[in-house]
Amino acid sequence: MRIPISLVTHAAIVAMALASPAIAQAQDLRADVARDMPSLMELYRTLHSNPELSRHEVKSAARMAEEARKLGFTVTEKVGGTGVVAVMENGPGPVLMIRADMDALPVSEQTGLPFASKVRVTTEAGVETGVMHACGHDTHMAAWVGTARRMAAMKDQWSGTLIMIGQPAEEVGAGAQAMLDDGLYTRFPKPDYALAFHDAAQFPAGMIGYTPGYALANVDSVDITVKGVGGHGAYPHTTKDPIVLASKIVMALQTLVSREVDPQSPAVVTVGSFHAGAKHNIISDEAKLQLTVRSYTDEVRDQLLSGIARIAKGEAIASGLDEPHMPVVSVRRDEYTPSTYNVPAFAERFAKLATARFGADRVVQAPPVMGGEDFSRFYRADKTIESLIFWVGGAPAADIAAAAKGEKTLPSLHSPFWAPDAAAVIATATEALTATALDVLKK
């Protein structure tokens, strides 16, 4: 008997769907996300046009709380300042926490987008500046809302507790700890899993990157005040020049990484600022250095910080300074961000799921970077949690093509020119977050 090709095709599709419900569900999820994209893009444009600096995310937090409340989440606002915690309990099972950060940067936007930010504020330090979502947190919030919508609509497909948090003050490394200090793990169900994503300027739009193990660095800000004995520039022998001493310290600091840290352990010591003196012919009595120090392990971090203090004091002694004139080394505890560790088993589980869903050409294992992320604190607070932050590429295809021809330089995160392919980021992240949540909370 000859069977019409149309019937063969139809029969094969039905058989495939029956044999693999996951494939049918994947297609349904992608279609549902696509239908939601117009409203998510409208939300994204609103958030992009109305950015708020760290600790001031009042309107952004209110919008996220409103969206979650409409979906049936139990919502608590003002956690750790402006943080949002939305909880949906849906039977027995694991507890999964999904985070989006909400704050923008003191950057004047130059993207040329029709909905570009025109917001200007005066910072807490008294500096007037433009404000921009130059790190893509607006895409994070939009995907967070998209994921919340999908999970609320698909409650029959999962069991457990879903916690969606809108986190403030990521850019200053303070928001995660503020939420933890305000009872995130005691006032609300403590997560078994923690999940987040970040848009990426280094990947093509829609590509997914994951990193098992250490993914982002310990970040420390260190101030060194180098003391000296000032005087006339024509009579240096009557002084103890802090500029010369500070210069010796800068050069000696480079040996920390090159000669003291194991070459297989990544580390960075960068002197980003050197200030001293005010006039050509005056030797000042003080110089100030500002450093950024990066590492992955706590052991290397301790080695670097103790080494900085030792070198500063040692160079001062070698320059003939007495105890009252020893340099003062201060580690800015308020700016410390611990390294981000992706639990390898969870990272590999995610990679397998993402590869099956998006294809091997869209999923790549990415090397760790020396940037910082305070998402790390949620795992640091309880290392029994399975934690993962992954990347979603945002570089527009046209920009990548132009850069390949030498016609364009691709902007980085924090650039006033960073304008990701927001639709690709939001759609990909929403689908990836939702699919991972369904897998973690599967019945």
UniProtKB/TrEMBL annotation:
Mn(2+) binds at C135, H137, E171, H198, H414. Its cofactor is Mn(2+). Residues 1-26 form the signal peptide. The Mn(2+) ion enhances activity. Residues 216-315 form the Peptidase M20 dimerisation domain. One of its GO terms (biological process) is diaminopimelate biosynthetic process. Pfam families: M20_dimer, Peptidase_M20. Keywords: Hydrolase, Manganese, Metal-binding, Signal. One of its GO terms (molecular function) is metal ion binding. PANTHER family: METALLOPEPTIDASE, PUTATIVE (AFU_ORTHOLOGUE AFUA_6G09600)-RELATED, PEPTIDASE M20 FAMILY MEMBER. This is Amidohydrolase.
